[in-house]
Amino acid sequence: xxxxPVGEFxxxxxxxxxxDEQKARLYFVDCSTRTLHWLDGGxxxxxxxxxxxxxTGIVPTDEGTLIGVLDDGLYVIDPDTGATDLLTGxxxxxxxxxxxxxxxxxxxxxxGKLGLGPVEGSTWWYSRQKGWRLLDxxxxxxxxxxxxxxxxxxxxIIGDTATNYFxxxxxxxxxTVGKRTVFGDVQSLDGSPDGTTLDESGGLWCALIGGHQLxxxxxxxxxxxxxxxLANPTDxxxxxxxxxxxxxxxxxxxxxxxxxxxxxxxxIDGLDVRGRPEPRFSLA
Length: 284
Description:
It is built from no helices and 25 strands. The protein is an all-beta fold.
């Protein structure tokens, strides 16, 4: 296994890492500067688009654009033209702005309230046809959502930064969930739940912010941990032509070049694990 920084840039608050296999492009944001970034092929020139407000979630669409989770709602973002257009505001019941997001396998979107600490929060489902639906009213800070077929069941995974990673039986067509159980218990690990990605075997790779590490949970059990040369990993995604490179984004805050790797984008090679294509939101 080899861990290396990508490029020579450092982020204040890196988040929302996603690989777009259609464009062979790695997207991520810097919340501290309200910017969207991308690397074609996962390397080379760093491209930047200034956004109208802070983005805390980025989801690819079937149409080749992105959905951005911004201050006042979900936006359609076209990185190639620079266009940013409001798709929908948040439901009043959410009581604030949303945080991380993902698409499910039917083209819908999962997101939830941004709550910096153990506060009241909730997780929500959104589709163009049916609008917003409440999934769980007891998630204080929605982080690392992911949907996949795990075992034989369609499963929704939600990380709550204040506690653990949870999972639910999930109906993507109706936006409903079954009983919540713990998928990844991090109480004995250093760090708190942040962004995630699923590999092709249904393993959940988790960035544990403050923990200097990643954790992989398989069918609800801790499978492995991966130490990192930085303190605050915030999100992970598989990328590259074979989806066999694991990228990790992080927060730097006061970090500067030469002061360590906090705030860097990392790539991990040699894990002998492949990811899956990222599910896409449907604008149709």
